[in-house]
Amino acid sequence: MSINSVIPILAEDLAVPLRIATKRTVLMCKPQFFTVVYRINPWMDPALPTDTSLAVAQWQTLYDTYVGLGFDVQLIDPIDGLPDMVYAANGGFVIDNQAYGAKFTHVERQPEGPAYMGWFAANGFDVRVPVETNEGEGDFLLVGDVILAGTGFRSDSNSHAELSAIAGRPVVTLRLINPSFYHLDTAVAVLDDTNIAYLPSAFDAPSLAILQERYPDAVIVTEEDAAILGLNSYSDGYNVVIAARAKDFERQLRARGYNPIGVDLSELLLGGGGVKCCTLELRR
Ligand code: ARG
């Protein structure tokens, strides 16, 4: 092989940015009492059977993946009768050791708010009791120094100002319009401090314009990948834990220098959640 045939390959490799992983601390909740007995999003159908032991086994794979990546994984005890408690992302939003508590929209999940706030208090976080309805990191995503905040289905837009005051960070309001993508973390994936992936059709026109302006180089995922909650993923800046079935997203991430890691959480998809829903970042 002549040197000339090698050079173009090298040049292509150099065009892929170097991604840096940073160690994360996350909170998770084992789906010991997971089942679907009510319907608060279009994914949930109480008539379909669920397999709690399979949910636990799949969740364990996610837990093991995080441990393998060097994360500090903390656990909150699951509570019998709160089947959605596995979706820890909704338990609050934690930044600078302050834990802004959740205040759930639906009565079925409301007891989770105090349960998570109790854990934050017991673990040395400064708990900020919410006045406004909000579902934590399900609707609040930190990208660098900006918080992207969803509304339309769950979190009240008044919670955006409440969080902005507590966090001392600008909050960008984004309106969700498709009931299947009812939390912001089902329509946006944070890849690192400056990059995101998202599903354009999940947003109203003004919100889409904001995303296009702020993130011109964003990964635009396919409807197919979004439809299995492929965006509901968690990145440490290099490793991106995603739904195993999100094959286009996997390729898109690899092409941009990330390391996608597929995990199968099909059982938890029956409750309308995926990787990110099961993960709450703790920022001391
Ligand atoms: N069944 C739960 C609900 O509808 C799923 C929550 C998913 N969580 C998330 N962060 N998107 O509230």
From TrEMBL:
Transferase listed as a keyword: no
In terms of Pfam families, this protein maps to: DDAH_eukar
MF terms in GO: arginine deiminase activity
Top-level taxon: Bacteria
Q: Which Gene3D superfamilies match?
A: L-arginine/glycine Amidinotransferase, Chain A
GO terms (BP aspect): L-arginine deiminase pathway
Q: Which UniProt keywords apply?
A: Hydrolase
Which SUPFAM superfamilies does its entry note?
Pentein
Q: What is this protein called?
A: N-dimethylarginine dimethylaminohydrolase
The species is Cryobacterium lyxosi
Recall the taxonomic lineage recorded for the source organism: Bacteria, Bacillati, Actinomycetota, Actinomycetes, Micrococcales
